[in-house]
Amino acid sequence: MCQLLGMNCNTPTDICFSFEGFRTRGGLTDVHRDGWGIAFFEGAGCRSFIDARATIESPVADLVRRYPIHSTNVIAHIRKATQGEIALENTHPFTRELWGRYWIFAHNGNLKDFDPPLDGNFLPVGRTDSERAFCWLLQNLRARFATPPAREALCAALRELTAGVAAHGEFNYLLSNGESLFAHCATKLSYIVRQAPFTVAHLKDQDMSVDFSEITSPDDRVALIATLPLTDNETWTTLTPGTLTLFVDGAPLWAAPTVD
Asked: What is the domain extent for residue 109?
């Protein structure tokens, strides 16, 4: 199983502490060694780092863990290959433009017999089921909406489209356009919202703690979404399998089932 990590905040925040624990799952505390990537939104721009090497061996990961990039939406992925060879083009997160904004996508799972027709507006570069699913989602959103839809319409469309893909197998994913973050739980995803009063958090994968009361302001709010909880002294909420959740400004705003 691949590993997903997402962050959605109400103010630009760095993900260094969470990434420190997350990266060890790429070859040290877990078996995922087939590449990794992380993407940060900065205004209308997007800063992306990917590497086909395991995070624990990657100089790029060392750069990211020491580089406090501040962002309101971040998606990271550690890969365990199921479809597509170990190669840079098969490494998540994937990036595409839709309605004049970047969209970032990362997937955990395996989609069987998923080979829908693509009209050419969005085409995969690599050979993964994940990138094909991303292209298919954006293709259908573009076909339905010529301009960015209202949030309610976007949520409804993604819920329906996600159900169609999920019928082919395990489809845990994170998706963001830099304004909000969608999380679909097929089997495993958990989240935590950190807000005042802030306390000390301790990583589950290594002996490292941080006192967020010393580095945050009272109005800060940060939602973290991960395949498995990253800390062992905080209460994480397990998302219900078959549910699509929208995070806005550091909190879950909307959730709906994608299965009947």
From this structure: 3-257
